[in-house]
């Protein structure tokens, strides 16, 4: 009885292997934007950046490429590069709100960091500025959240 199962098992393995290779042959390569988005969604920012930079070399005025690069640069703390990418988007199409909005948020984020640094360096020596920095941060938070 064992001799019946062995040929059936081998046959199933061969069919499985050929089915896998046929499936792999039918898979179309994904577009660079889909590939970059996939990396971005998995927080693989350097991989997404690599794909997007190659794409931006081929297509210089692609809003979505530069917007995603801006988002990557914000998430990796590269604020000057993010600023350049959002401004590039605005130069490409100034009627699209999302680059304006993200650039404004970036500037608020930079202002918060600057207020934090100023507070840490001066609060000990100057109580008046300690209060001012706290009020500034409070105002920035209120401006972002509306609360």
From TrEMBL:
Pfam families: TPR_8. The keyword DNA repair does not apply. Coiled coil: none annotated. TPR repeats lie at residues 63-96. InterPro entries: TPR_rpt. Residues 1-24 form the signal peptide. Keywords: Signal, TPR repeat. It comes from the Bacteria. The keyword Acetylation does not apply. This is Tetratricopeptide repeat protein. The lineage of its organism: Bacteria, Pseudomonadati, Pseudomonadota, Gammaproteobacteria, Cellvibrionales.
